[in-house]
Amino acid sequence: MPRTKPENRSRIFDIADSQGGFFTAKQAESAGFSPKNFGFHVKTGNWFHEGHGIYRLRDYPEHPRQDLIRVWLWSRNRADQPQAVFSHETALSLYELTDYIPKKISITVPSQFRKGSVPSPKVQIHKARLEGSSVKKFEFLPMTSPIQTLLDIKEAGRFSAPEMTSMINQAINRGLVIRSEITKNSELREFLE
Known about the structure:
There is one protein chain. The chain has helices at residues 6-17, 25-30, 38-43, 66-74, 88-94, 146-156, 161-173, 179-183; strands spanning 22-24, 47-51, 54-57, 85-86, 105-109, 123-127, 135-138, 141-144. The protein is an alpha+beta fold. Strand 7 (135-138) and strand 8 form a beta hairpin.
């Protein structure tokens, strides 16, 4: 039975705490855990195996958006850096700008993003280069900014003009965007009341 040093437990907890209780195999290694003992931690119930190279601490409270965390960690590159930014209908839902409940988790990844498989048929991948101001944080998860989300939604064409007007007005009224951002944007200006 492998012994776990208290400092290793503390390091993995700090990592998992910053990610809703989740961590990657590489993060566990960096915290001092040997990959040959990962199975032991899963078998004894210290960790839950949540996907390829993704784990969750047993004693950490369940996060309400575990589905998003799994997808975000799945999107990591060879350097173990997640690439996904939650976008389109998923971001719209997180901003609570509509009652629409998305059937899929929408993410935007860099155009050079390559993965052999999608973690779930419920994940929709968009490829685009997002500038720094186009990305915000929802807790610790990256998502498109409100204005970028509205632009993506408009471009996708899944909502009617009255629905777009309603979402834009809600975004303005709730302080997520300022009116001048919309008036300066030729793609969104037509939906202002």
